[in-house]
Amino acid sequence: MTILSSVLAWFADPVHWSGPEGVPARVLEHVYYGALALLVGALLAVPVGLLVGHTGRGGFLVVGLANWLRSLPDLGLLILLVLLVGIGLVPVVAALVVLAVPPLLAGAYAGVRNTDRAVVDAARGMGMREHEVLLRVELPNALPLLFGGLRSAVLQVVATTSVAAYVGFGGLGRFLIDGFRAQADPIAKYTEMTAGVLLIAALALLLEAVLAGVQRAVVSPGLRAPGRGARSPADMVLRDDPPCPLTETKPETAGVNP
Amino acid sequence: MVWDWIPRNRELILGLLAEHLVLSLLPVLAGLVLAVPLGWLANRSPAARAVLIPTAGVLYTIPSLVLFVVLPGILGTQILDPVNVVVALTVYTVALLVRSVADALAAVPSMVVAAATAMGFRPARRFVAVEFPLAVPVLIAGLRVAAVSNISLVSVGALIGVGGLGFLFTDGYQKDFPTEIITGIVLSMLIALLTDALLLTLGRVLTPWHRLAGSRG
């Protein structure tokens, strides 16, 4: 039996679709850990990113912190936390929060910073107070980049939640880890691992499509220039060097063919 | 921390460090070489763009761990073959950079391109001497993200037995030995931050006009 047909047979087997070790239960566990981490990460990162973007103070710290957190190897962090505090939901979620914070922080900060200064000045000229400027002008204008950050945080968290299985937790990583460890027969081993990672990929693609739809519904149509919505973290790298006079373009025109 | 564990295992640590560097940075190099022509094509032809950009988006969405496992089935390699990790991270890097390159080239002001054409630059030379250098800052930004995330992603490969410094994590877990794990984390962060600083410097060297803009205030 080839790998493809054995993977298809794995998916067709009703045994894999019921009970606490079935696909639906594992998907729910996976989404639960990930959603918890994203919630905590967003509560930590978004207000800080918005405030630092609004005041313009501490931008250097945000860039540095995001870079440091991005460079932390997540598997190592999770294993270290588990050895130090024991297996539990806290180390699993904490390791994933570390992953969710940099893109959210960068998205919120860059979103506010990229808001057209003329618009912000106009808001102040109309008599808006600072918190109104932030919440009613800068936040809506920051949404495309903020959503870009959220989508990249979701992708990374969904991908990395798999490592929770390594320290004995659930989620879709279980199929990968159990397949790798427990199955003796190489075909059965590879089949279970492949099925597990295909489920992870499907979940990632599904969430990406859902978030893209939500973004379209939430972001003001006035901000929807072609190529505007940041799709990858590369679009949101925080500039810490002076802009190049020739390649620097206003966000409104970035990506538009002249 | 059991400090003397580090010098006693120097050979092991240095070997894993070297493996980690190759597994994470070779894909950055290969990804760059592939992404520049693809990005150029995406910027030149709307048809190519309509195919390349969404494909890159989907590939970027697929977690690298998924590719680590699925690639042996596609490439016919062994699951423990490091080639899987290199190819997976190359795919990931290309997916990230193609869009950056296409957007960076699109952002080159048409006046500059027109001026270069009027000065007698042929398309190929114009690309190398004018358009590509102007795209460098965006390209470097993409490369920094790719390099840093690759360095962190390689260690996840330890789950399936190929992961450079990630071996210190899984081995340390089995031995219940935090020193080994902390060593791995610190080294991994160190090479990520050093690579990042190196790319930043490279970007500055390649774009001397930045310094002019900076001194202007």
Q: Specify the oligomeric state.
A: heterodimer
If classified by CATH, what would the architecture of chain B be?
Orthogonal Bundle
Query: How large is the share of residues in beta strands of chain B?
Result: under 5%
Total E-strand runs of chain A: 0
What descriptive keywords fit this protein?
heterodimer; A: mainly alpha; MetI-like fold; 68% helix; disordered C terminus; B: 217 residues; 0% strand
Q: Could you please describe the fold and organization of this structure?
A:
- The complex is a heterodimer of chains A (258) and B (217).
- Chain A is mainly α.
- Helix content of chain A is 68%, strand content 0%.
- Chain A contains 9 helices and no strands.
- Chain A has helices spanning 3-12, 23-55, 59-71, 74-85, 89-113, 117-125, 130-160, 173-182, 186-218.
- The longest helix of chain A is centred in the first third of the chain and has 33 residues, at 23-55.
- Chain A is elongated and about 70 Å long.
- Chain A starts with a helix and ends in a 40-residue tail after the last helix.
- The model of chain A is unreliable at 226-258 (pLDDT under 50).
- Chain B is elongated.
- In chain B, 83% of the residues lie in helices and 0% in strands.
- With 217 residues, chain B is mainly alpha-helical.
- The model of chain B has no long low-confidence stretch (mean pLDDT 89).
- The interface between A and B is large, with 61 and 74 residues.
